[in-house]
Amino acid sequence: MQKKLFLAGALIGSAMPCAQVQAQSQNNVTIYGDVDQYIGYIHSDSGKSVTGVNDGAFLRSRIGVRGQEDLGDGYQAVFTLENGFGANNGAMADTTRLFDRQAWVGIASPAGTFRLGRQNTAIFFIGDAIDYTTRTTFGSVINTFGVPSRYDNDISYKSPRLAGLQLELHYAMTETAGEHLGQRGVYQLGLDYRYGPFRAGYAGLVAKPVAAAVYGDAVQYHNVYLNYNYGPGTIYAAAVRTNNVTSNANGNNATAILSNVSATGNTFAGTDPNVKRFYNIYQLSADYKITPQLRIGALYGVMVDTSGNNSGAKGGNLGTFYDLSKRTMLYGFANYMKNDSNAGFRFGGSGAPTANLAGADINGRTLVGLQAGILHRF
């Protein structure tokens, strides 16, 4: 019996360091994510409709791991690995990547945070400043056009917030043989300023085309925004100017800068002179908190084709959010969009709807969409 007690004590004693290491690991590493599912209905004035269970009206379903290690003197090693998936069918958002949304490591310091790897853009980061839906639902016109969201081989710096102002810089390398550093790539700048109830800023990027591009114009995306928190809600104003209309890698593609555009009739091959086309997008929205759990909002936006080819659109939505808890939210939206005669834009959420319309049912058409869903964060 004494031998058995001694053996049990030895096993417990040997396990304690492992338990302590595991506890420390759990304190520094967090598994997180969300599941966002909604029933979506889209109707075109062509007479065609579609209904389906879609992923990500508000946030794309995802699972991630993030962590930090305290290095002392205000320094930390930090990392994030994040994968998107469709909870409606269990499929990975990108079957070619293990972590399609983010995969970076960096150092956080008193002077700011430095990161290396696949990262979200400065434009993506300020989504909550663009409109009351965080720029992701059917009715957001800025989202309908498409938002550059993330790039590989990205080097970034984000400053501390000083006197209300925060700076963000990115440079994504193309890693092309024969090109010197800085010759090509995606350059980003973000400036976010907060003062009392006001928030204002800019987020944008410029990307140089491939060396042999037929059209050498830089691909650009510029977004300015202004918010005012009036107490029970916030007013959002935003404007975008962009020529981000290239659909493939043949010519002026600037490292697949257009990966998140939802239009099917308004993207062009890099050898098409229409890649020089600029759009101006203007959007205004506001929300109002009726109770601590219930919030409503409205949005209207216009997309202007500055080339005069009548390829813009306009639209908006009415929406509501109800918090069942800190982690679980119900939501609903009624959305509207009218394409100009030569436009082919269609609805897109945080993730592209698996049940959507295309072709003759969107080109020059008026669309109505309904969304009702649930979002749970963990």
UniProtKB/TrEMBL annotation:
It is a multi-pass membrane protein. InterPro entries: Gram-neg_bact_OMP, Gram_neg_porin_domain, Porin_dom_sf, Porin_Neis. One of its GO terms (cellular component) is pore complex. Keywords: Cell outer membrane, Ion transport, Membrane, Porin, Signal, Transmembrane, Transmembrane beta strand, Transport. It is found in: Cell outer membrane. Residues 1-23 form the signal peptide. It comes from the Bacteria. Residues 21-341 form the Porin domain. CDD domains: gram_neg_porins. GO terms for biological process: monoatomic ion transport. One of its GO terms (molecular function) is porin activity. Homotrimer. This is Gram-negative porin family protein. It comes from Collimonas fungivorans.
